[in-house]
Amino acid sequence: MRLWNFKKKTYPDYWEAYLLHFEKKEKKSLESSRFVALDCETTGFDFYIDRILSIGAVSIYKNEIAVVDSLEIYVKQTHFNPDSVPIHGILQHGKLEKCTEEDAMKQFLNYIEDAVLIAHHARFDIIMINAALNRMGLPKLKNKVIDTMDLYAKTRIKSNFIDQNAQYSLDEIAEAYAINLMDRHTASGDALIAALIFLKTTSLLKKSKSFKLKRYFLKSTMF
């Protein structure tokens, strides 16, 4: 009879430290939870070929943006797409201090912990991050995720605009809420815009007694 030796796959310490945040026994209400609004600037939109150039993130706690608790990372470009430079302005060999993709993911995981992640068109950002983790031999993110576009679309429905299939852009929503677009197309700037949209839309939606934020958690199968 052949004996099989099934060994548990081991992961680096920083991944194990990240997982520990999800093993806490105390349950938090959404009101007392930490949220992290994020954005990724990338070389393009191909999940297999393109790479993350920068990650910007800012935390939200008790309906306030904690600007001092923010993150901005620039990643060394192993894949360069000159066509995307006019959008994000990040050069392959510019003066910005950059780190490796692995170091970027370490910093990102350490920063987000078990926070609920907020992003505009969140599926793209999360898939790009999960692709980077996969290249490192790591599993996908475990955090809950909310798309600000879904929140904004719900406010439009309540205003009798019922086009549920509309794809509202970050610029369009920012303009509707008079949000400054000075740092648009920088990861940190877009993360801050997403945070502001999150606060604005949730404040409007909370006026309804039936509103439950957890209904907007994206399904993990989307990533």
TrEMBL record:
It comes from the Bacteria. GO terms for cellular component: cytosol. Keywords: Exonuclease, Hydrolase, Nuclease. It comes from Gelidibacter sediminis. Coiled coil: none annotated. SUPFAM superfamilies: Ribonuclease H-like (SSF53098). GO terms for molecular function: 3'-5' exonuclease activity; DNA binding; DNA-directed DNA polymerase activity. SMART domains: EXOIII. Residues 34-207 form the Exonuclease domain. InterPro entries: DnaQ, Ribonucl_H, RNaseH-like_sf, RNaseH_sf. The keyword Hydrolase applies. DNA polymerase III contains a core (composed of alpha, epsilon and theta chains) that associates with a tau subunit. This core dimerizes to form the POLIII' complex. PolIII' associates with the gamma complex (composed of gamma, delta, delta', psi and chi chains) and with the beta chain to form the complete DNA polymerase III complex. DNA polymerase III is a complex, multichain enzyme responsible for most of the replicative synthesis in bacteria. The epsilon subunit contain the editing function and is a proofreading 3'-5' exonuclease. This is DNA polymerase-3 subunit epsilon. The keyword S-adenosyl-L-methionine does not apply. One of its GO terms (biological process) is DNA replication.
